[in-house]
């Protein structure tokens, strides 16, 4: 039962935050819903930390609920830790960032619900429950993307997001039904490793990749992402780019793990799709700088597509050839990317908030007047570009190491994979570095009134910045959580 | 002894990083405290590396190793391997680094963002020492990239200047090209070693382990890895065709040019090649490639240095050219190991001196254009004397350290018996003398073309100059220790000699005649420069050399072409919902094609 | 035999839903297409039978309804801003 506490806390918190939000309107006070949500999140995080330590010591928690089993193992601990840390930071940031928006009660209750959904994805032990929590994550995210519903951008992005996501969900659901039709069961413990290749399962696998792949922004299913991630409020962008697409991919792995015993080339498919994803993501992020007006958040959104490519490559290499370093890199990058991309979006949000424009050209020299924001933004971008001693370097490095280890299995193809991935790392410099340059150029049209955001927002960014640096110099901190998860994946994720 | 070698190694590795972490804190206490704290950390680092020197060079400790588990979960351990080569590099990094820090007190006074400056310089020193100390290739790559980051951030130190910011980006991107090749090389080597030696991934990355088992590693792996390492080295060490970033990097503060772009970071490529020489020496064509690249770079860069009007860019091209000398020497095989590393050491000292001297001149005059200087001999007496010391060392006047090391390279090329490379490198030595004289003449002699009066720099700036000038006179005296220490490497052609034997050997070879004649011809070329420039062929050649032989244009063209392609590619993202949804169908088709393709794989 | 027939129907319905989203220019028609696609999954689940299938179908219907509600609220906003429900209007963000 104790394993469900963080999840239940978040569900309750969602309801209480809504109530507090209503109360806030009646009493004409401020921040009531925000601080309620924050309290619940912090409590959930603390309990999750305790649970994480217990799980890392080898304990496994299970709970039967109405005939289905929920289990907290190393994989779910990894996902929930990332989510809760990022979620808490985003909530802290939103206290000030969202204070002038209407509909606080919806914002915080939906945010908590989304986080609860992601935690649930980790706990599921059968396909249907997995799908259920997947939807619990998706539906609040639809509403959150279109949260500022009087802005055109939000509406259009929300519309695109919902159509693509719903299509994906429908396909994934169909895939699940095919698995059920073939085997008569949906539980991982009965499926993983026991399947043989049949036409129906082959189709089911395709539908899983297409369906869950929409959320994971696998090219060519990524077209909703740049719109949705750049149109959402910045806190939500940080959540979406940081962890929601990661959780989508996590769902995909969980679903695909049932095919481990079959002869289906799941891992190889993931590798090729990953290379496609990172290339398209990087090229599209690069091309943003040729626009007349460069939309900062759109570059970051496309960079998320590229970074997903790295994650998928790492996991795909592990999946296909049982290379431990690949899994380690992929999962570690899931973690570091959550923090650094979260940080990048929070910083972009601050810039947009303080300057009142989302276009990079009008941000010349802000780093000189907003020293802290400029510094942490540069930090996050350098980390994304894979520059040591920041965390992004460490995880990308592990992914590249993993992908080259395929050389001993598939020969030159292994080197080709690594070369493509590394050339992508080169292209990515072409759009991260100009952002930093622009931030510190001599200001041309900046008003003097530009100043740092409130201390609460700075605290939120400082936490993520510290994590980005610490995970770079002392990767062991993150790898300790990653390692048991990798061990679980190596034996088929049961 | 209280401080044993292992402790010293860890101290040398931690002092700079502690400094980086604490500089921002000390900045809160006041700018003076911060500056002196940074300098103290720098000198502590230098002191620890110098204390390590006797232990290694006198052979008391051979191939000291130390380990520390960095990331246990992935089996990554930080293994340190110290030998004469790495300790020499570390002393250069720590010693010149601390002198540059001292010099910066006055030179950088009044600039914005000095906290960032000191933190980055210390981070650079630490990363450089890490780079030369580690044994694991992937951790070496970590530091390799970290020094690249420092170089990027310090070139663009003056962020408000778009030229500096662009130069920083250019430096990082172009060196990244080399780095990628280097990383691929590491990976291929590791993958080959894993299968051949039956070791784990991380163990297969140990350089010493690889060198010991080089005969077991398959040749095709070695070939690819070897050429990838060369590309990595030419990126970092600014060799043709990836040299274009170094002249642009002169937008950095002069102190940074002296430390990073002359004395330490650019030597990392040479260090890498020297370090992996035993690995790849047997690869066919590998040493020839080094010989060609080194010779070509030395020649082209020397011609560009001959016509450049910007004082710092002259020095930059001269650095490129001297690095070409080192690569050339390594291209002679294991017998070129001592000349290359010896030249690396003497070059680090005299080039840092020249840059710091140039910094003092620029500081006083306020311009980098040599045609707006002139006649500084009397006004900046100390700078003049020290810079002449450095210049003569660069040109190769008998007695200066540059003479001994360059002569050693020429002697090795002479012993090799291959005339064409010897001719190229001797010709370049001649050009070197010519452009050195041109530079010194334009800056210190002739009539006064300046708008300002100048005067000598204050003591924190002149002290490093004097120390380095003395260094450029006497650093060659360490050759005896150096060669004796190297003899433990077991290279053929490296045998312990004493200083006197070295001197006798130098003057008993015909090669010394070549280097003296090249020096004199260089002076002759300098004297006839006016009539050469008046000649139509000569002026045409000068124009071509001034344009940098079109490398920059070519790279700009590549970037432009890539940009055009991406703009075309952008049209595939229409934003239309119907098209977006069609992505699912496209995805389905991609997966089906792949399934057919992979169907035969398993 | 029966199951295959169900399956064929389910696939046909799935295809129809997809066709609708791919070609129709009206937002509401897109919603209908999505709903049809989801129903295809329901059908194939029901073909298999069993308690799990029924639970799954009930759950997916609930989610379908919530999704449709959010979708429609967005559609209302689109209508408010553009005065039509044409998908062609949703092309301002691209590239």
Task: Tell me which protein chains meet in the greatest interface and how many residues each side has.
Answer: A-B, 73 and 64 residues
Overall mean confidence score, pLDDT of chain C: 91
Structural class of chain B: mainly alpha
Largest beta-sheet characterization of chain C:
none
Strand content of chain B: under 5%
Give the number of DSSP strands of chain B.
2
Which overall shape of chain B is indicated by the principal axes computed on the Cα atoms?
globular
As residue ranges, the low-confidence spans of chain B are: none
Anisotropy-based shape of chain C: elongated
Number of helices of chain C: 3
Distance between the termini of chain B: 63 Å
**Series of secondary-structure elements of chain C, N-terminal to C-terminal:** HHH
Percent of residues in helices of chain C: over 70%
Please give the count of helices of chain B: 26
Q: Please give the radius of gyration of chain C in angstroms.
A: 16 Å
CATH fold group of chain C:
Helix Hairpins
By secondary-structure content and strand pairing, the structural class of chain C works out as mainly alpha
The percentage helix of chain B is: over 70%
User: How far from one another are the termini of chain C?
Assistant: 48 Å
Summarize the structure.
The complex is a heterotrimer of chains A (494), B (602) and C (95). With 494 residues, chain A is mostly helical.
Describe this protein's structure.
- The complex is a heterotrimer of chains A (494), B (602) and C (95).
- Chain A has 494 residues and is mainly α.
- In chain A, 76% of the residues lie in helices and 2% in strands.
- In chain A, strands 1-2 form a two-stranded antiparallel ribbon.
- In chain A, β1 and β2 form a beta hairpin.
- Chain A is globular.
- Chain B is mostly helical and 602 residues long.
- Chain B has a domain of 45 residues.
- Chain B contains 26 helices and two strands.
- In chain B, strands 1-2 form a two-stranded antiparallel ribbon.
- In chain B, β1 and β2 form a beta hairpin.
- In chain B, α3 runs parallel beside α15 and α17 crosses α22.
- The model of chain B has no long low-confidence stretch (mean pLDDT 87).
- In chain C, 80% of the residues lie in helices and 0% in strands.
- With 95 residues, chain C is mainly α.
- Chain C has a single domain, classed as Helix Hairpins, CATH 1.10.287.3510.
- Chain C has three helices and no strands.
- The chains are: A mainly alpha (494), B mainly alpha (602), C mainly alpha (95).
- Chains A and B meet through α6, α8, α11, α16 and α18 of A and α5, α6, α25 and α26 of B.
């Amino acid at each position: 039962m104790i394993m469900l506490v963080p999840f239940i806390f978040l569900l309750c918190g969602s309801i209480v935050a809504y109530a507090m939000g209503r109360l806030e309107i009646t009493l004409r006070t401020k921040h009531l819903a925000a601080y309620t949500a924050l309290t619940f999140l912090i409590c959930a995080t603390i309990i999750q930390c305790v649970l994480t330590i217990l799980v890392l010591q080898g304990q496994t928690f299970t709970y039967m609920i109405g005939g289905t089993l929920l289990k907290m193992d190393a994989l779910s601990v990894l996902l929930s830790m990332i989510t809760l840390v990022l979620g808490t930071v985003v909530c802290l940031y939103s206290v000030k960032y969202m204070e002038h928006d209407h509909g606080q009660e919806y914002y915080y209750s939906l945010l908590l619900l989304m986080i609860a959904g992601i935690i649930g994805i980790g706990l599921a032990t059968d396909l249907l429950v997995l799908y259920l929590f997947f939807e619990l994550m998706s539906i609040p995210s639809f509403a959150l993307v279109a949260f500022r519903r009087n802005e055109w951008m939000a509406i259009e992005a929300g519309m695109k997001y919902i159509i693509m996501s719903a299509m994906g969900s429908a396909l994934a659901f169909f895939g699940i039904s095919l698995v059920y039709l073939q085997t008569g069961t949906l539980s991982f413990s009965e499926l993983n490793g026991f399947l043989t290749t049949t036409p129906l399962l082959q189709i089911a696998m395709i539908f899983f990749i297409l369906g869950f792949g929409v959320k994971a922004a696998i090219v060519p299913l990524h077209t909703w992402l740049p719109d949705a991630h750049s149109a959402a409020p910045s806190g939500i962008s940080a959540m979406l780019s940081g962890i929601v697409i990661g959780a989508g991919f996590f769902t995909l792995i969980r679903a695909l793990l049932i095919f481990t015993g079959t002869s289906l080339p799941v891992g190889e498919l993931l590798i090729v799709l990953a290379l496609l994803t990172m290339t398209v993501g990087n090229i599209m992020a690069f091309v943003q700088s040729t626009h007349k007006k460069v939309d900062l958040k759109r570059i970051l959104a496309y960079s998320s597509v590229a970074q997903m490519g790295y994650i998928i490559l790492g996991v795909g290499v592990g999946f296909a050839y049982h290379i431990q370093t690949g899994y380690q890199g992929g999962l570690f990058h899931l973690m570091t990317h959550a923090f650094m991309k979260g940080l990048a979006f929070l910083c972009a949000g601050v810039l947009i908030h303080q300057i009142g424009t989302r276009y990079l050209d009008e941000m010349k020299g802000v780093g000189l007047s907003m020293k802290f924001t400029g510094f942490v933004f540069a930090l996050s971008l350098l980390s994304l570009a894979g520059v040591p001693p920041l965390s992004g370097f460490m995880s990308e490095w592990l992914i590249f190491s993993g992908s080259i280890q395929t050389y001993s299995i598939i020969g030159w193809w292994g080197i080709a994979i690594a070369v493509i991935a590394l050339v992508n790392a080169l292209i990515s410099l072409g759009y991260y570095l100009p952002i930093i340059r622009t931030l510190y150029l001599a200001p041309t049209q900046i008003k003097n009134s530009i100043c740092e955001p409130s201390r609460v927002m700075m605290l939120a960014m400082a936490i993520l910045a510290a994590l980005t640096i610490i995970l770079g110099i002392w990767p062991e901190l993150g790898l300790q959580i990653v390692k048991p998860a990798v061990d679980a994946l190596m034996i088929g994720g049961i | 002894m209280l401080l044993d070698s292992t402790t010293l190694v860890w101290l040398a590795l931690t002092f700079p990083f502690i400094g980086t972490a604490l500089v921002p804190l000390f900045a809160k206490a006041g700018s003076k405290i911060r500056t002196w704290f940074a300098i103290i950390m720098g000198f502590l680092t230098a002191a620890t590396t110098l204390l390590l020197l006797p232990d290694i060079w006198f052979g008391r400790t051979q191939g000291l190793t130390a380990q520390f588990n960095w990331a246990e979960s992935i089996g990554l351990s930080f293994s340190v391997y110290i030998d004469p080569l790495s300790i020499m590099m570390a002393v250069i990094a720590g010693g010149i680094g601390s002198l540059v820090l001292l010099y910066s007190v006055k030179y950088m006074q009044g600039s914005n963002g000095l906290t960032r400056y000191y933190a980055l310089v210390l981070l650079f020193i630490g990363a450089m020492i890490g780079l030369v100390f580690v044994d694991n290739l992937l951790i070496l790559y970590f530091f390799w990239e970290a020094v690249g980051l420092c170089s990027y951030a310090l070139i663009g130190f003056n962020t408000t200047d778009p030229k500096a910011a662009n130069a920083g980006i250019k430096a990082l991107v172009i060196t990244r090209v080399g780095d990628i090749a280097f990383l691929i090389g590491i990976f291929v080597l590791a993958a080959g070693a894993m299968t051949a030696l039956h070791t784990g991934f991380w163990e297969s990355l140990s350089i010493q382990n690889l060198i010991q088992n080089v005969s077991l590693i398959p040749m095709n792996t070695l070939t690819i890895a070897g050429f990838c390492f060369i590309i990595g080295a030419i990126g970092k060490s600014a060799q043709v065709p990836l040299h274009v970033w170094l002249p642009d990097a002169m937008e950095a503060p002069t102190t940074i040019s002296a430390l990073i772009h002359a004395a330490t970071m650019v030597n990392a490529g040479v260090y890498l090649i020297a370090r992996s020489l035993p690995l790849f020496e047997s690869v066919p064509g590998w040493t020839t490639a080094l010989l060609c690249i080194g010779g070509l770079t030395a020649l082209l860069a020397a011609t560009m240095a001959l016509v450049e009007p910007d004082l710092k860019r002259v020095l930059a091209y001269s650095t490129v050219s001297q690095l070409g000398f080192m690569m050339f020497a390594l291209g002679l095989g294991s017998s070129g190991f001592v000349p290359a590393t010896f030249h690396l050491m003497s070059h680090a000292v005299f080039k840092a001196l020249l840059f710091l001297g140039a910094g003092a001149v620029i500081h006083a005059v306020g311009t980098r254009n040599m045609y707006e200087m002139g006649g500084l001999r009397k006004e900046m007496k100390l700078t003049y004397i020290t810079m002449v010391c450095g210049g003569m060392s660069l040109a190769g006047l008998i007695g200066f350290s540059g003479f001994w090391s360059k002569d050693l390279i020429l002697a090795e090329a002479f012993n090799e018996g291959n005339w064409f490379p010897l001719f190229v490198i001797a010709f370049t030595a001649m050009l070197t003398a010519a452009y050195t004289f041109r530079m010194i003449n334009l800056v210190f002699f002739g009539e006064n073309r300046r708008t300002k009066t100048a005067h000598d720099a204050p003591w924190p700036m002149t002290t490093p100059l004097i120390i380095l000038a003395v260094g450029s006179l006497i650093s060659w005296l360490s050759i005896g220790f150096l060669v004796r220490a190297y003899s433990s490497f077991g290279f053929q052609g490296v045998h312990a000699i004493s200083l006197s034997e070295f001197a006798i050997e130098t003057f008993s070879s015909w090669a010394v005649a070549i280097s003296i004649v090249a020096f004199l011809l260089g002076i002759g070329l300098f004297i006839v420069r006016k009539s050469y420039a008046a000649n139509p062929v000569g002026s045409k050649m000068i124009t071509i050399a001034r344009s940098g032989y079109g490398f920059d244009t070519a790279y700009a063209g590549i970037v432009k072409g890539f940009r055009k392609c991406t703009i075309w590619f952008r049209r595939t993202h229409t934003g239309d919902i119907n098209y977006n949804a069609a992505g699912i169908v496209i995805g389905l088709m991609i997966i089906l094609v792949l399934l057919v393709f992979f169907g035969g794989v398993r | 035999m029966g199951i295959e027939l169900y399956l064929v129907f389910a696939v046909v319905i799935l295809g129809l839903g997809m066709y609708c989203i791919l070609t129709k220019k009206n937002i509401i028609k897109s919603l209908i297409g999505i709903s049809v696609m989801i129903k295809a999954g329901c059908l194939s689940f029901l073909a298999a039978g069993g308690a799990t299938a029924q639970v799954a179908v009930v759950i997916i219907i609930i989610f379908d309804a919530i999704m449709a509600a959010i979708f429609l609220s967005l559609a209302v906003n689109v209508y408010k801003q553009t005065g039509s429900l044409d998908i062609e209007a949703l092309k301002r963000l691209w590239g």
